[in-house]
Structures are given as structure tokens and as C-alpha cells.
Amino acid sequence: MKVLVTGGAGFIGRQVVRELTGEGHEVVVLDSFRPDVHTSRPEPRDGLIVGDVRDERTYDGIDTVVHLAAKVGLGVDLNDIDDYVSSNSLGTAVLLKSLGRIRNLVYASSMVVYGEGRYDCDEHGPVAPGPRRVEDLEAGHFEPPCPYCGKPLTPGLVPEDARLDPRNAYAAGKLNGEHLAAAWARETGGRVTALRFHNVYGPGMPRNTPYAGVAAIFRSALERGEAPRVFEDGRQRRDFVHVRDVAAAVVLSAAALPEQPAFTAYNVGSGTVTSIGEVATELSKAYAGPPPIVTGEYRLGDVRHITASSERIKSDLSWKPAYDLTTGLTELVHGR
Ligand code: UD1
């Protein structure tokens, strides 16, 4: 098939392009090479459109679109909010409008659409805690309590049909993109698969930018000889999934689209829950660097735990992540 990959020059995009090409597909990359991410901007060439998804254009001869182009990360402060909406929501809207006769879309979504995700209370069963209170965070109470009795909760794995509750501009934009794409699919008879990525890491991770994910931030610190700075108490839970596993999920999803319903959402995670403190410790060890410092700082837009079940994509598409975290981090640090 001929596949358009938006954001194809980015961290995940480059790996997706490699995987698609390796499987014999023809690929066209659309990437804006935004200066806050890329240091240089290449000349357009065959198979590369240097441009912004927000600019309307026609895409001829494309069978499937993989839409990865986005402004990523949590955002530095609220001054970014309009750029998130413009880059992500408007970007998706203009792309959808430009799809013409194309009917197959893979949309890069995120685990952050769930907000705090799933928790269980001994007394009240499954509950969905609201955003954490500043007073609690200031006091070092990082675990969200049961919204009914205030007792501690046990975090669990979120299924795709869980309540969606985005907590920051990036998350809101990603969910908005899912909704826009679902509306496009209904209107046109198209099909969209939204992949809700967990914390993606691996070779080619962005460096030295406040928009980078935590593994990249820790790596940059260690490369400077500094200790990784772990926010909260380091016990917040995430699922780190290797970028090659993510690329494989994208390619499988793209190939399966013609048989899929109008809208499908899949969580894409390794299946292994890890705390941020553990990731920092593993990386420090791999670099033989200083041990992490747990700072107690917090970011208001952060959720405490965000881990979901990826069983649906495993069973529907036979996707199987190949990397465990130790292997992936070792490769990242030692280049193998
Ligand atoms: C990340 C991605 C988001 C993706 C989501 C999928 C980034 C920036 N965010 O969000 O795009 O959709 O995963 O689940 O890639 N932390 C520290 N020290 C730091 C920075 C962060 O301890 O220097 C902590 C944060 O407080 C948070 C955790 O690390 O608890 C993860 O933060 P981050 O990597 O920004 O990712 P998510 O918010 O999980």
C-alpha cells in the first residue's frame, strides 16, 4: 500500500517509516520540521513533503494515512495552550478535510486521554478520582484518594472503553482528534484506528527539550553527569513501550484497517508497569551515573498512575511487544 505518514520525521515517525518501508510499502512523509523539534529543514524530495498538516493540500494516490504529526509533551505552562490546540486539534481537522477519497486512517492518540484511569476502592469498588488538589500535592500526598470515602486506592489497568477524562491541553487535543476522526469516519464511510500510546522510549528520542518524555530527560541529565530528578515520590506508575514495538503496532493497524469498523481504539503498552523512580534507577545504573534525586516537585497537569491493558490489540491484531524495559534501556545507553 502507499502510506502517508504525517510527522514522519519525528521520533515515532522515523521508526514507522522504517518499518513500513521494510515491509515493502511505499511511503510519503509529511513533516513540518518545526524548529522547536528539528534543528534543520531539508529540501522537499520524492517521498518527502516539507509542510504543515494545517495547510490544506491534496494527497493523491494514497491508500492509508498514519497521522503522527503533533505537538507532544505536557507543555511548559499555559502559554502553550493555543499552540497545542492549533497543532493538534486544528492540524487533525485540516488533515481530515484534505483526505479526499482516502478512507483508512491510523491516528496517534495517547494514554493521557483516560486522565487518572482506573482505581479500586476496598469499599466502593472501581472509582474514577478527579484531578489531584494542590493542597494535597503541596503536602506530599500524591496518591489520589477515593472520591467517596477519601481512603487509599489501588491503581489498575484501564480498558479502552473506560471513561475518558483528559487533564491537560495535550490530552484534551488528543481526545479531540479521536472524536474528529470518528466523525470523519462516519461521514465518509472511512475507518480510523486510534492507538493510545503509553510512554514511548527508544533510539532517536528527542533530546534537551522540555517537551521530551521523562526517559529522554533522565538520559540527558545523566549524559551531563547529573542525577535524574524524579518528581513526586517516584512511585507514580507508567508503562514504557519501545518505539520499535510501537511502530510494529502502527503497521499492523494500518494493514488491518480495511477489515476494521469505523472507529477502533487500542491501548499500546508493553504490559509491564514500572515506577518513574525505577526507570531513573535503571538508567543511572546503566550510565554508571549518580543515583536519582527524588525532589517532591509536581506538575499540575500530571496524572499519578497511567497504565492500561493492551490485551485488545494483542488479541485482535496479534501484536506482541518484543522489548522489556531492561533490554530497551540497555540498548538505549550502550547502542545495542
Ligand atoms: C507521556 C508523553 C505523552 C504521551 C503519554 C502516554 C511526553 C512528554 N509525554 O506523558 O506525550 O502521550 O506519555 O502515556 O513524552 N517526571 C519526572 N522528572 C522529570 C520529568 C517528568 O519525574 O524531569 C515525571 C512526571 O512527573 C510524570 C512522569 O515522569 O510523573 C512521566 O512524565 P512524562 O514523561 O512527561 O510523560 P507523561 O505525562 O506520562
UniProtKB/TrEMBL annotation:
UniProt source species: Kribbella karoonensis
NAD-dependent epimerase/dehydratase domain location: 3-144, 161-269
Domain of life: Bacteria
Transmembrane annotation, as ranges: none
Organism phylogeny: Bacteria, Bacillati, Actinomycetota, Actinomycetes, Propionibacteriales
Alphabetical list of SUPFAM superfamilies matching this protein: NAD(P)-binding Rossmann-fold domains (SSF51735)
Protein name in UniProt: NAD-dependent epimerase/dehydratase family protein
Pfam families on file: Epimerase
